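ok so i was messing around last nite and threw this chain in just to see what happens. nothing serious, just curious
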Amino acid sequence: MDLQCLECDAELERSGELQRHCGSCGANFKIEISCNKCGDQLQRLKACGAVNFWCDQCNELKSKSMAVYELVEKKD
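result:
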């Protein structure tokens, strides 16, 4: 997933599983994953190479295609 910096539009580098860093301006970001139905934060489930998500609010298992991804700047 190629993502652009929200500050300077440069391409972001991966700096962790759900973390991104901009080598150009130094900004750090995290990827937040929420439910497409209720908007609640999803729990990430990994097993045997597959990644799925669990929504506590909807009480449902969600696939990657049913998750909403948002890039949020980390404030350190």
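not much to say yet. The mean pLDDT is 92.
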